[in-house]
Amino acid sequence: MSLIPVYRSRASALHTARAGAGAAYCAALALTGALFLHPLVLSAALAAVVLAGIAAGVGRGIGHSLRFALPFALLITLINPLVYPEGDTLLFRGGEVLGRRIDITLEATVAGALNGMRVIVIVTAFGLLSAAVDPDQLLRMFRRVSYRSALTATLATRLVPVLVRDATRMGDAARCRPHPPGRLTVGRAALSSALDRAVDVAAALEVRGYSLGGRTARRRQVWSRHDWRVGGAAAVIAVAAVTAAIAGLGSVEPYPSLQIETGPPEVALSAALVLLSLAPFAGRAARMGVAHA
């Protein structure tokens, strides 16, 4: 649970902006990682996520996301050259395993490392979303689309940590007894407590009229300067990434011979990603004041 960033309200432009703008900002950074395989662009996207997290005051949460993503990236790096032995540069010639010859090439190893780096960028971008975007506001956006689904997701995000704490405390209490009960007994007690809590929550919601599922009222909220800055940065990052991908910038051809095109356009794109990601936190307009007019 500690590897998953948890939202806490902070005085930053990303926290103050509405959930839609914040989610679009994080999704634009994740989109950049998904579109490109170029090491310079991926490094810039990762730097953009990390710097944005530090500027928003959630650098510790971004560190947790990095630790969560690193094992998966390493696994991809190790598996890719084993299952896809393509490429002209042979690094290691192995024997046969189950009738399949194991040859490790430079191209397959680099391709695996780049795909692992892509995973790191995407995971850390969504880690930034988890740490800096209010989940209640984010789910509230979907209440007019699917009222019951939004309510279920809201309750799940709130109750799951509570149930985990209950189960942990029950396990600690069980270990303090002279003859600790088995794991099955503790698990049964935790499940029984979860069901009791679910019944209580369902009864409380029914009394308050949630079972009717009526149409919710639309509340119009004026966009603040933080909404415009974060949402504008998200739009520009997404447009720049998609346009560059369509134009063929940052192309990487791992097979049969490794070819990584690096020139002024790739350098400019990488610098633009970092600068655009920091734009919502720069200048006097980023200072905290009245969030919404």
Topology:
Layout: H1 13-16, H2 19-35, H3 39-55, H4 59-83, E1 90-97, E2 100-105, H5 106-132, H6 135-140, H7 147-175, H8 183-207, H9 225-247, E3 252-253, E4 259-260, H10 264-278
Antiparallel strand pairs: 1-2, 3-4
Provide the domain count.
2
Radius of gyration: 24 Å
In total, the number of strands is 4
Give helix % range: 55-70%
SS content category: mainly alpha
Please mark out the parts with pLDDT under 50 across 5 or more consecutive residues, or reply none.
none
Give an account of the 3D structure.
The protein has 293 residues and is mostly helical. It folds into two domains: 13-136 and 225-261, no CATH class; 140-212, no CATH class. It is 64% helix and 6% strand. The strands form two sheets. A two-stranded antiparallel ribbon has the order 1-2. Strands 3-4 form a two-stranded antiparallel ribbon. Strand 1 (90-97) and strand 2 (100-105) form a beta hairpin. Helix 4 (59-83) packs antiparallel against helix 5. The chain starts with 12 loop residues before the first helix and ends in a 15-residue tail after the last helix.
